[in-house]
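User: structure tokens for this one?
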Amino acid sequence: MIFIPFQSHAFEIADETQQSDIKKWSTFFENSTMTESERLAELAWFAEISKPFQGYAIKSVAEDIKTHYWESEVLAQAFEEITGIQVEHEIIGEGSVVERMMEQQRTGRIIYDIYVNDADLVGTHLRSQAVVNLSEYMQNEGKLFTNPDLDLDDFLNLEFGQNYDGNQLQLPDQQFANLYWFRYDWFTNPEIRAKFKAEYGYDLGVPLNWAAYEDIAQFFTGMQIGGKTVYGHLDYGKKSPSLGWRFTDAWLSIAGVGDVGLPNGLPVDEWGIRVENKVPVGASVSRGGAINSPAAVYALSKYIDWLTLYAPPEAQNWRWVDAGPKASRGDIAQRVFQYITWLSDDAFHEMGSPVVGEDGKPLWRVAPTPHGRYWDEGMKVGYQDAGSWTIPKNVKGQRRAMAWLWAQFCVSKTVSLDKFLVGGTPVRKSTIHADYLTEHKDNWGGLIEFYRSIEEQKWTDTGPNVPHYPILSSIWWPNIARAIQSEITPKEAMDTVGEQMDSAMASMRMAKYSPQLHEPKDESHWLNQPGSPKPERSRPMPQTIDYDELIKQWK
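Assistant:
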């Protein structure tokens, strides 16, 4: 038998098979930020605490990205061999995850024991009171089943899953930001730089604002490089729910729609919803919101213009899943809005790819997202998705304990670095600062430097002000699609979104902080006050920064 100390605890692991499994998986996760003895101790804790549950089974669900496939194919096996608990970790579309969680809350029928559900829904969860308050659980009923080395202070952006009082409703499992992506090799090419300077009068570099991004998109579009016709922009425009994500994932905040404040603007957030004393009071400008403000109309107008003028023509028929890997095909100069989860694809790293150099290093880099003309210092800059473990309240007793153990295993320090190496979706500070990533940071094209900088705090999720994410998010994409197809103007589209959001919020009856809408007033009343909604602004001077200088600033 082996005797393994774990902080103030000590466990005797007598079963030879279990001993062997613990040692096997400790070796498998040798990239961990933990030492071998620390890994053995953490895995032994999971084995010991799970003894009452051996032979039982639970079900969990997550969206279809590489990180979750790895959890399903690798971590579920490791967890079962170490704990004796069988996990069916089902991978489905993100929309289906939300639908099933809402169905479980509505009907009381247990579909899954635990969900990896975007922290974007935290505003829904805190108002519906239908998910487990993990802070209370860890302090009381779940204290025995809480990993002594969970180390909440080590998590990145823990606040994404918290309610207004700082209670943890959701625990991060994976996250990925939307960043600016560009061809570093082209941007540093002397001939291309000289030509840009001659045409636009300033240096080609990482754009700090949309004015510069627009100039660079225009400059590269139609250029011949390496025998290919190049495009200065990449996006997608097919009528589908993912078109809504393109906007609710903070496109309006990048344009400058909301107020200053982190992680989300107050009193007006990046969805244009005004919230007073935790209560939503309106989205339309007439009620003090900003969803149809000049900044929001500008955001949609620029999106349509750039998609039409500077992106590949077929992009109008792409969805999120289609557009994600397209930058790797070698004819895209820059992308204003690249989900970094796609950068884990082999196409961005393997030898022979048009975006990988002869030395095996990426020819591309990532940098902060350029912001629109309505953006003000102190606002969030961009969006960060945070898929988070969420337990419905109707999962109780032993099932809740097993679900909580499974969630903690998937974010444990033992496995977190390996999970990042597979999916590129970090959740721990110790992962980002790992010696392994310091030695290999060039393989990620600036991503490691971004997460180590204080800038990362300006990329946040949707936040707690959205009272019912599934209902309100479904309003966006049908109206935006009509504007893309020139059936209505951007102003008409955003006016309709505002009207429908206000109507939906007016009918909501929630357990806590239900919307109570302001009476409409003339829009000028709100546009003439400080903050959001903001009156018209003119195009600013384009601004760029040298990428290598930017990296020095981050350090």
